[in-house]
């Protein structure tokens, strides 16, 4: 005879087994229904409405199935269209419709594209989507033959970064995961006030700039620099962007409204290093004798663009055995500059041609009496060669007084933000 205690345990085990069995049967029932193709319930929402399966690029996924591909090395647009069964006349029409938006010769191996095919048994291709960039794509309608260029909405976010120079501005920003474009733009903002070839360890900066994102998370590039402070050799330089549509002003000014631009750029190259300064006595590396060096040498890779440091008129663009390929520019009755040892002179640069400040006039080389690629930058004032690094230059006009209130309203919060970051260090 079984004891009451043992019978109770058996009942509990049987109840558990029965519950598990019922749960298994229930799960199996729904699994069979899901696989049976009976979607009469699955296609309905809570309110009895059909569930939208979603879309991509504005194309319904209920009717079309997308597949993603990458352009193969050497693969032509026409061959892709041929594989999709698009006849040649239709391809020619699509290319005609896409002029100005799509150049099949410029798509590259690794570029992404999508093909949308019918979900029916024919699996015919109806749409071709080309990812032309992170911020836009092209929709090719393969049936009705149309091409639509679509720009993705981007979100602009302000970012503030501070750093102390250890080796270079580029490396310091890179350590903060900042695009190299910010280093280039900062050098452009301060091109008239700071010599970036003479940055010192311990110089520091704070900068507020824009970054652009697609879908809030995908970084697609940097935008404008809005404000900055650079401390160089113990002196601080503020720069704030100011735009006024009515006056057409789009420039950078100091916190007191002074223009940052000067008549001359600090150097004829964007990034390089000084290898020899203006001096009355230098041992010439080629001629092997002591002589005056009335210029400033900037070393840079061969082919680096050389910029005219100010607007003016070309008075010489030629070659001599000592200077190599060189260009000389007269800026006004007082100042003239010269750029030596070019690998080549830029196209269109010849005597009597007007050049703008920052315009490319040639490319770094080692022609003439030179031991390596560099540009020798020479500077005349009233017919006498002088050291450009010691020559004070007049600033551009300050901000008009009538715009001061508008400028201050834009500048003040940016300066407060920069100062608050600077105070933390």
Quick structural gist:
This protein is of the alpha+beta class. It is built from six helices and 24 strands.
Describe it for me?
With 425 residues, this protein is of the alpha+beta class. It folds into three domains: 55-151, Roll (Nuclear Transport Factor 2, Chain: A), CATH 3.10.450; 155-253, Nuclear Transport Factor 2, Chain: A (Roll); 273-390, Distorted Sandwich (Glucose Permease (Domain IIA)), CATH 2.70.70.10. Helices cover 20% and strands 36% of the residues. The chain contains six helices and 24 strands. Strands 13, 16, 17, 18, 19, 20, 21, 22, 23 and 24 form a ten-stranded antiparallel beta sheet that branches. Helix 4 crosses helix 5. It starts with a helix and ends with a helix.
Keywords:
single chain, 425 residues, alpha+beta, Nuclear Transport Factor 2, Chain: A, Glucose Permease (Domain IIA), 3 domains, ten-stranded antiparallel beta sheet, five-stranded antiparallel beta sheet, 6 helices, 20% helix, disordered N terminus
pLDDT < 50 runs, ≥5 residues: 1-50
Terminus-to-terminus distance: 87 Å
CATH homologous superfamily classification of the largest domain:
Glucose Permease (Domain IIA)
The CATH architecture designation of the largest domain is Distorted Sandwich
* Gyration radius, rounded: 34 Å
CATH topology annotation of the largest domain = Glucose Permease (Domain IIA)
Order of helices and strands: HEEEHHEEEEEHHEEEEEEEEEEEEEEEEH
Shape: globular
Strand content: 35-45%
CATH class of the largest domain: Mainly Beta
Described by strand count, sense and barrel closure, the largest sheet is: 10 strands, antiparallel
What's the number of domains?
A: 3
Give the rounded overall mean pLDDT: 82
Provide a count of the helices: 6
Strand runs, count: 24
Helix content: 10-25%
Q: Could you say which structural class the secondary elements and strand pairing correspond to? A: alpha+beta
